[in-house]
Amino acid sequence: MMTLNRTFIFYAVALVGFILLPQLIAVKYYLHLSVLALIWVIAAQGQNLIQGYTGYVSIVQAGFMGIGAYSTALMGIHSDMPVWLTITLAPFVTAFFALLTGYPSLRVKGHYFAIVTLAFNMVIFIVLMNFHELTQGEAGITGIPKPGAKDGLFNWRDRETYYYFVLIIAVLMTALAALIVRSRIGQTLIAIRQNEDLVGAIGIAAWKYKLFAFVISAMFGGLAGAIYAHYQSFINPEIFGVAQSLDAILAVIIGGSGTIAGPIIGAFFVVFLPEYLRFADSFRLILYGLVLVLATIFMPRGIVGVTTDLMAKWGRGKT
């Protein structure tokens, strides 16, 4: 009960902090980065379901973000559908492709699964880059409507308005991820991560649960991509390459794999850290990679794991 109360207090304080954040930021560019970080929270929560809880490292999350982004962009430009509807439909379009790719890829395990999903991300990137008639290729798609263009309820061109919109979606998706993890399905996913052979031995069809996690993970990615497309009003294939899928993986690892808070912390980490390293100029990416490697080696359980250990030691010290 005490742990539950602490968890509730933590998330309540964090939510209040996120609500007040735009009022505390003096430089509006950092508000822009905060919007991007919240979008990555959504994608990372999805990545965490398949990676952190099921134990399968998927290297295709950015590809699924691309499917969601291009789906909503094309629907928004070439139809009269309101933006809220195209954003809602984008995750389901992504889920369709995840089903097509998930069944064959989940027949393999471990590193082989990671390689197969990496190949899928590369295929998605190549299709987006070369299908000029639909995707405009490397030039990308411009003029993607913001919600205000057709829905006119708020001033969506105001960055602060979009921040609160993305915050609401990120909170809802984080709550959904927590509900899944705490459900019977979530407990089965954790069991698969711990001992998949034993799960199969007691008569549970592990592949169904893995496919569920993979598809839901993709839907999170598709939603994140759709929100990103309407926020930036521009997308091109470079945004959804393998490097961005690695960012999703790192967000989970750095924040804390297999925790709900981990992807939140990790998403802000992978968005803000490269910006703070800009002083290094041409060495920025080298320093970024070095920080990530050191963090992975010395904090294998992520920031959440380290914080939990420190709090436990502090608690024992008081007693």
Automatic annotation (TrEMBL):
Transmembrane domains' residue ranges: 7-25, 31-50, 57-77, 83-100, 112-131, 162-181, 211-229, 249-273, 285-304
GO terms of molecular function: branched-chain amino acid transmembrane transporter activity
GO cellular component: a single term: plasma membrane
Keywords: Cell membrane, Membrane, Transmembrane, Transmembrane helix
Name of a matching Pfam family: BPD_transp_2
Keyword Transmembrane: yes
Topological type in the membrane: Multi-pass membrane protein
Domain of life, source organism: Bacteria
Localisation per UniProt entry: Cell membrane
Predominant localisation class: membrane
InterPro entries in the record: ABC_transp_permease, LivM-like
Stated name of the protein: Leucine/isoleucine/valine transporter permease subunit
